[in-house]
Design goal:
5-stranded parallel beta sheet, about 25% strand, elongated
């Protein structure tokens, strides 16, 4: 699956069910004002009423919709119908049956709705792009391409190979659900814009003994693209992303003692290295 094949559904419609009685009058008006700023991004907006379920089925495609609701019961029902849900929690002790919950709409954008929608439907998030590359999350349809990448000469000289196919498939599925789904970041795929080919893997992970505000940088680039500046281009963009989008404070990277190319790259990017007994540990304060 290449960079041009990832979108299988488009987010077009917004379904809104706001239980006004749960808000103070002032807070309700304020939240509706924020919501009105987002609504023009959708092709269709439906203010839903519980006594008019039929109105849902007038929408062209429920699968291309997302529901914003304060109701735990409706959240559960909509997800059962195959619709993504962004929960709006008003009452502290209320348990919303939604994967993503907000406490207010002040900082919510259309892109936030889009990412909730994509996560619900298993569509990998687009993360960022550089001059020559696009970086996005792994999707299960990428597994064969990932194996082809790891089978290239010298790719696993200093990193662990993939598991056997069935085990790797299970691992990657869990990674999508538990790492991407929980942290919102992880190891991503690197595609060359010009060809759409998978040429690498890079990203950020929280691993022990990472402290709060600290993540570990990992990367690999296909041998066909070595010595062309791709690794530096991708890693520099990820460093910026870590600071500006994730508000991280420090990045570390663990490097094999014999991996001179990675050491040179990290030093070029401004990392400071410290040699340990069995590896180099590099760090960069953002």
């Amino acid at each position: 699956m290449g960079i041009r094949e990832v979108r299988t559904l488009d987010l077009r419609n917004l379904v809104i069910y706001m239980e006004q009685e749960k808000f103070t009058p002032e807070n309700y008006e304020r939240q509706m004002a924020y919501l009105k700023q987002i609504m023009p991004s959708f092709e269709q907006v439906l203010f839903f009423k519980l006594d008019n379920m039929a109105s849902l089925f007038l929408m062209e495609n429920m699968a291309e919709s997302i529901c914003l609701t304060t109701s735990p019961e409706l959240a559960k029902q909509m997800q059962g119908l195959g619709m993504a849900v962004l929960g709006f929690q008003i009452e502290k002790d209320e348990m919303l049956q939604a994967s993503y919950v907000v406490l207010g709409l002040e900082q919510v954008t259309y892109d936030d709705f889009l990412r909730v929608f994509q996560r619900f439907h298993g569509i990998p998030w687009h993360i960022l792009e550089t001059k020559r590359c696009q970086i996005r999350e792994f999707g299960m349809d990428d597994l064969d391409a990932l194996y082809a990448l790891y089978e290239q000469p010298h790719v696993t000289d200093f990193i662990e190979p993939l598991y056997a196919y069935a085990q790797e498939r299970e691992y990657e599925q869990n990674y999508i659900e538990r790492i991407y789904g929980f942290y919102g970041f992880g190891m991503w795929l690197v595609f060359e814009k010009e060809t759409g080919r998978l040429i690498g893997r890079a990203g950020l992970e929280y691993r022990e003994p990472c402290e709060e505000g600290e993540v570990e940088l990992g990367y690999l680039i296909a041998p066909s693209h070595w010595h062309k500046g791709y690794a530096a281009e991708v890693c520099q963009a990820i460093i910026t992303y870590a600071k500006e989008e994730l508000s991280m404070e420090r990045i570390v990277s663990h490097v094999h003692l014999k991996n001179d190319a990675s050491r040179h790259l990290l030093e070029k990017l401004g990392f400071s290295g410290e040699q340990k007994e069995d590896e180099w540990i590099y760090s960069y304060d953002l």
